[in-house]
Amino acid sequence: MDSRTDPPAAPERLTSQRPRSAAPSWDDLRIFLAVASHGSMSRAALALQLSQPTVARRVTALEDSLGVTLIERGVNAIRLSEAGAAVLEAASGMAEGASAAVQTAEAYRMDVGASVRITATASVTLFLSQHAPELSRAAAPHQIAFLPTRRKLNLATGEADIALRMRSLPEEPDLFVRRIALIAFALYARSDDPTAPVIAPPEDPHLSMQAAYLERLRGQRPVAARIGDMPMRRQAILAGLGAGVLPCWLGDSDPDLIRISPPGDVWSEDLFLVTHHLARRRPVIGTIADALAALFKAQAALLAGEARTRPAAP
Questions:
Q1: Cα 154–Cα 247–Cα 266 angle in degrees, nearest 5
Q2: By three-state DSSP, how is residue 61 classified?
Q3: Please, how many CA atoms are within 13 Å of residue 127, restricted to the half-sphere of its CB?
Q4: pLDDT tens-digit map of 36-90
Q5: What family does this chain come from, according to its entry (predicted)?
Q6: Distance between CA atoms of residues 111 and 281, nearest Å
Q7: Bridge partners of 186?
Q8: Domain count, the chain
Q9: 166 and 120 in one domain?
């Protein structure tokens, strides 16, 4: 008979069968989920603050306890076996459930040592760092941890407590979202070299609004380099490499830079403050969220590129 008409096979048939050992450890399953999420043993080890051999050993222990091979090891990469993919799907809610339990418990205990983690892009984090004292006062006695990254950290699993995100509204469930600012960007050069070549972002102009904005403005200027990180791009502009797109709050406040975009020609993005409903049970999260909203409201003109006191380049 054709095997496709057989009843559903037991999970062990999804891949090479192994002898089963003791009952699986929940901690080993957590480590397997991290490996699947990060795509490598080394990155999972870094995220879990474990050694790579320990991660590999724990995954092997989980495979032994389940009696199936979950991860197929290659020379330079790993991939999930068919059984591994099935186990990953079945256990996908475990990490969120465990994180929800921890966050709920944290909401009901007074833990002065627990920091509040705020994730944002590098440029937004740079803006926050300039106002760190007032944010720290709002958070006291808790500490604030700034997590600058372009990656969208998962609030549901507790990778961060508050996210400041641009471009579009998050679509994940159980999130509280509010628009708190409009951030404008323009083209800047060193004041002594307004006709410099440009420093472009690495993205394709057809796929990136920022790259498309620069492509429209640069005219016949050659591209001197491509730099994606905004603070690094600012340093390159100041060093004389070329002109580049910066947030107006950053470019307009630097006396060594001059805006060379045509008057009123800026590229703007909405900024959203995002929190998970479980994290909001901690009173300090709401306090800091309100402090962030108040800060961005007070700096609205600067962020929108409307507080410039120096003339643009002719």
A1: 115
A2: helix
A3: 24
A4: 888 888 888 888 888 989 999 999 998 888 888 988 887 667 888 888 888 888 8
A5: Belongs to the LysR transcriptional regulatory family.
A6: 13
A7: 246
A8: 2
A9: yes
